[in-house]
Amino acid sequence: MGYGGAHGSSLFKDAPFGVFFRSFTHQRTHRGTARAAREGSVALVSIRPPLHLSSPPNSGDPLLLSPPEAAMVSADTIRTVIGIIGNGTALVLFLSPVPTFYRIWKKKTVEQYSAVPYLATLLNCMMWVLYGLPLVHPHSMLVITINGTGMVIELAYIALFLTYSAGADRRRVLLILVAEVAFVGAVAALVLSLAHTHDGRSMVVGILCVVFGTGMYAAPLSVMKMVIQTKSVEYMPLFLSLASLVNGVFWTAYALIKFDIYITIPNGLGVLFAVGQVVLYAIYYKSTQQILEARKRKADQIPMTEVVVDGKNGNGRY
């Protein structure tokens, strides 16, 4: 039966003509759809896909990111900022020996200075550069940049040391330098050829970085021992202790935001050692000032090498 039959009459009777017409012509509005549903008309299904915040359009609007994605972006941004600040504090530490090497350059001799701290720092930097390579631990550009810069600075120090040292000292430094380069090259070759995953490569290199990094950060323990014995912080500059503390804090935070145990361990220990140095500085600051003042008074006194009595010196002669 056509639309003039019972069903057609019922449809026109029960549903307002405007709603039916909009349904028939597919002009879907919220009001018409709801009304048609209530009146039993033809069900209308929108062909327009819903907008999901978890699948943002190509506009790239950050406001359309889902909460987990927004949190991840925020954490990555904070981590990058902290890493940049950490690079700045590490650069200050790398440049701190400049006055020492300026003195060596002026005097044309290394005097009693040792090259061991600079060789140790160079090895540490080379290992961290290896760790940060994309083939070992991806997305570690900040680690590569600061340790690559440290490598260049330490090599400059060692070059000056080799220039102004002589004999056995020069040969020993050169031998250690060659051994370090060979060691890092061997580690790189073995790791890249035998370990076939990022996790395996980063674990091997990371453990070595922890060992060498901890040794480098533990070096000030000998200075702290001397401070306790002499009750003087004269040879433990506060500036370097504070710079070490700030550097350790920022790099520990960097490692904790996106957890990296190999960066966390040495830098966490560095924070503890730096805090210990600052505490010692606070304890022995006053006694250091007293020692320095006593030394100054002694230096200002006129040395009495001869005692003159009745026109004669201590030897009984005029």
UniProtKB/TrEMBL annotation:
The chain crosses the membrane at residues 81-104, 116-136, 142-162, 174-196, 202-223, 235-257, 263-285. Keywords: Cell membrane, Membrane, Repeat, Sugar transport, Transmembrane, Transmembrane helix, Transport. Pfam families: MtN3_slv. One of its GO terms (cellular component) is plasma membrane. InterPro entries: SWEET, SWEET_rpt. It is a multi-pass membrane protein. GO terms for molecular function: sugar transmembrane transporter activity. Gene3D superfamilies: 1.20.1280.290. It is found in: Cell membrane. Belongs to the SWEET sugar transporter family. Mediates both low-affinity uptake and efflux of sugar across the membrane. Forms homooligomers and/or heterooligomers. This is Bidirectional sugar transporter SWEET. It comes from Lolium multiflorum.
